[in-house]
Specification:
Blueprint (H helix, E strand, L loop, with lengths): L4 E6 L4 E8 L2 E9 L4 H15 L9 E5 L5 H18 L3 E4 L1 H8 L7 E4 L3 E6 L2 E6 L12 H15 L30
Parallel strand pairs: 1-4, 4-5
Antiparallel strand pairs: 1-2, 2-3, 6-7, 7-8
Helix pairs in contact: 1-2, 3-4
Length: about 190
């Protein structure tokens, strides 16, 4: 079995981050905090990470992507990019939840909580993932850095490789805030 070269990335919050791992060693990681613009920045950032290590897309063994929970649009950006890259390169793409990534970064025995909008947090409760008031959980001293999340995402995938991967899918705990239009759709012209 060869040592996997995995490109991991995360756009599930107000950031765009990527990491390149060789086995369980991080060889490059970059991230940027950004409220919007992940779709425009992601592919350029991935290219920069690969170029910094003189690596090409064809050298990759797998892709890893943060699938949420988090920002609806950011998650869709990351998942779409991962699925497209995996399909085009003929390699597996592993979807990694924010809980799994943070578990790799957490102190043993601490509860994993991910901040959510409107003073809420995502946790794994007794009945699975749920959204709870922020006051009901104890958050870590600080939210992980974007590069740490991308790195943990890639390392989690490395622990799964070479197992087959299902196509990454968004991991939502709550429905998006956007709602379908209430008005009837306009008639299509023939």
């Amino acid at each position: 079995m060869t040592t996997p070269l995995i490109l991991g990335f995360d756009t599930s919050a107000s950031h765009c981050a990527a990491a390149l791992t060789y086995g369980h060693q991080v060889i490059e990681a970059r991230g940027e905090v950004m409220a919007k613009g992940q779709a425009e920045r992601l592919m350029g950032l991935l290219e920069e990470v690969l170029a910094a290590q003189k690596t090409t897309w064809q050298d990759l063994s797998a892709i890893a992507v943060g699938v949420g929970p988090g920002n609806f649009t950011g998650i869709r950006i990351g998942v779409s990019a991962a699925r497209g890259l995996a399909l085009g390169l003929g390699i597996p793409a592993y979807g990694v939840t924010g809980f799994d990534a943070r578990q790799r970064l957490a102190v043993s025995g601490t509860q994993i909580a991910i901040t959510a909008p409107r003073q809420m947090a995502y946790i794994i409760g007794d009945n699975g993932p749920e959204l709870v008031p922020l006051d009901d959980v104890t958050l870590a001293a600080s939210e992980p850095e974007p590069t740490d999340l991308a790195t943990a995402t890639a390392l989690h995938a490395a622990s799964l490789w070479p197992a087959p991967a299902l196509a990454p899918a968004p991991f939502y705990i709550k429905l998006p805030d956007a709602a379908p239009a209430r008005d009837a759709a306009p008639p299509l012209l023939q």
